[in-house]
Amino acid sequence: MKLQVAVADISQCRKGLTVEVPVEEVNAAFEKTYGAYARHLKIPGFRPGRVPRELIKQRFAKEAEEEVVQSLVPEALQAAVAEHMLRVVGEPQIDALSIGQGEPLKFSATFEVMPEFELKEYKGLKLTKRVATVADEDVEHALDHLRQSAAEFVPVEDRPSRDGDFVSVNLVGKYVEPPEEEDLKSDDVQVEVGANNVQPEFNDNLRDVKAGDVREFRVKYPEDFSSEGLAGKTLDFTATVVAVREKEAPELDDEFARDFGDYENLQQLRDRIRENLTASAEARADSGLREEVVKRVLEDYDFEVPSALVEPQAADRAREFAYLLMRNGVPPQTIKEIDWEGRMNEFRPLAARDVRSALVFDKIGEAENVEVSRWEVEAEIERMASMSGEPADQLKARLTKDDSLSSIEHRLRHQRALEAVIKHAEVTVEEFNEDRNEHHTQSPEQTESEGEVQSESKSQAL
Questions:
Q1: Domain spanning 152-248: which CATH class is it, in words?
Q2: Residue 329's closest CA among 242, 239, 227?
Q3: What distances in angstroms separate CA 302 from CA 185, 317, 354, one per listed residue?
Q4: What is the DSSP string of 190-247?
Q5: Distance CA 148, CA 190 (A)
Q6: Which residues are CB-neighbours of 16 under 8 A, at least 6 positions away?
Q7: How far apart are the first and last CA of the chain?
């Protein structure tokens, strides 16, 4: 198809095309369309295939024109894009379209394209990998956490509640400012009296209570309260005490270690805890190092990225945020009341950074000849399945159905490219103790650069 094409640079990621399809191509398309009509039309007084062409043109000119446009525009646009080697992202916008039999087809198209940028120097970065040392008090703190997790909640019947007790209440909250249609209701809410993450009004009114007591009190939530559905609002609560319990933790001894797992004594449990804490500190250090690499590499790039890539990424961040709130027990109604458009405005710059990072490290991967084999993708699926508890073949089938296998390959390529940057960097390992703020430096030869990036989560407080 011979075309007349003009390309205009609207921005770094947006192009405009003006396309003209020759009249010969247009006439041929019309004749082909009318021929199809003639073969299939059934009009009284005419035998099949014998309907005069002029009659068809009179009756079906508009329909034929629409079919010609639907046929020629995509074909012409694809040919124009291929001729000018444009990497189109998203759907083009077609306008200024004109067509008529005996005339050329003309139209304009605007669309986004992948940005063009030159790969800058990424080798020889000077980086610091900070690894937290594991002190004895860290081990004891983790051991006490295990002890507390094994504690039992014992009913308290011979005295009223006090700080440290756990009071279960059925709550009814009536909105005072601003008024709401529905009350806030929640049964069997467990409140640790005196805890720092509990609103003072709850602590004050649930102290010195017994099962069956009813307390009424007003809570004015601060504007920056962690739950957006309650922030800045005032509620009158009625709390009916269901039970008062206290926590009884087991003794830290060899029997506790044997009950907790396959350990012969308490010292073996302590050793395992130290190993896990050390591995966790190493993983956090690797995560921090990788985040620093991304930050340092992206400092040299500020190119525009297509909104067609940014918007889905921002939507993914919004979904992850909503899932996080649900996992932390935030009521669905509260989640619905969130200003999601405002949240999307917050997520878009982060999403643009994600897209820019993916493009840069993809180009680094090309420079480093990074390849990901089918077997590596299979191994990653096995790893994901073991973490989620889902059968590997079932997970693979679901990923295939969702067309998500390529995303696994892209993620592995991104990780390999990032590892290549770290391999070419000068990395110094710095050990530190967060309490004593002591630092010890190791040589770059002692550095390990493998690990996984861990995600952060935010918690919601009542």
A1: alpha beta
A2: 227
A3: 49, 21, 12
A4: EEETT-TTS-HHHHHHSTT--TT-EEEEEEE--TT-SSTTTTT-EEEEEEEEEEEEEE
A5: 16
A6: 7, 8, 9, 10, 108, 109, 110
A7: 66
Which range is least confidently modeled, 51-65, 210-224, 351-365?
A: 51-65
Which range among 29-43, 313-327, 394-408 has the greatest average pLDDT?
313-327
Indicate the pLDDT class of residue 43, thresholds 50, 70 and 90: low
In the chain, % of residues over pLDDT 90 = 55
pLDDT band for position 38 (cuts 50, 70, 90): confident
DSSP, res 444: G
Q: Quick one: CA dihedral 186, 190, 192, 194, positive or negative?
A: positive
CATH of domain 4-113: 3.30.70.1050
The mean per-residue pLDDT over the stretch 365-370 comes to 93
Residue type, 269: L
Q: Take residue 308 and report the two structure tokens written for it.
A: 């067609």
Query: Closest Cα to residue 257, out of 151, 143, 140, 149?
Result: 143
Domain 152-248 in the same topology as domain 4-113: no
The residue with greater pLDDT, 322 or 183, is 322
- In terms of pLDDT, which residue wins out, 167 or 227? 167
The residue extents of the domains of the chain are 4-113, 126-134+266-446, 152-248
Around Cβ 295, how many Cβ atoms within 10 Å? 11
pLDDT at 372: 87
CA 389 to chain centre: 21
For residues 20 and 3, the answer to whether their CB atoms sit within 8 Å is yes
Superfamily of domain covering 126-134+266-446: Trigger factor, C-terminal domain (1.10.3120.10)
